[in-house]
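ARCHIVE CARD
Drawer: 12
Card no.: 0347
Subject: one protein chain, sequence and derived structure
Cross-reference: see card 0346
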Amino acid sequence: MSVFSLLLLTLFTGCVHKMKPVPLTPYHWQVEYDGGGSVQFNPDGSGDIVFQPKEPKTSGQTFATLLLLKDTVDRPLKNYAVKIEVTTVKQLREATPNEWEVFWFFGNYRKVQGENKTANYFLVKPNVGTELGRVFDETGQHFLKTSELGELQIGKRHTFVIVKEKQSWILFQDGKQIMEYHGEQMPEALYDQAGSFGLYSEDALVRIHSFSYQAL
């Protein structure tokens, strides 16, 4: 673990007691789009959010769901620590699912009327590793870093901790550091803008068990 990682981990550990748990209710989460599928709050009394877009029937089809945290829509954040407990329950493409058809996290998400949406994102792929990048416009994507560390198991509950401070990003999965990134100039920079948090699924059934965060 690098010196920077230790500093960020110390920073995160010091603010854990200040982290704000967010109830998983429609009052706190805004459905930006459902991909033709469903978003369920507190199904079977679990207290979770369960969401899935429409099932793709052909190789050319893809569907996505995005929920935004209302607190950060109203009060956008630049720098933060986030903790998410999440299960990618099932990939919906029956034939051969793509490795990115899992849960994604969006940070610094911004969509202003008359402008295009932008966000930083990460996803952990089944048996492939971890990906960090930027999304923009409707379908634009720029990869910033990939790592062989991190492994998503379909149907297993995972805990992710993200710390973003200016141009630095660090990610932990189940208590183990799996990625560290330091942005420079565009196009290799992170979006360092005040924005909202997003819970995203691309062609996958996802269950969110808990979410908490702290502004840095």
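Annotation on reverse: The first strand starts at residue 20 and ends at 21. The chain has one domain: 3-215.
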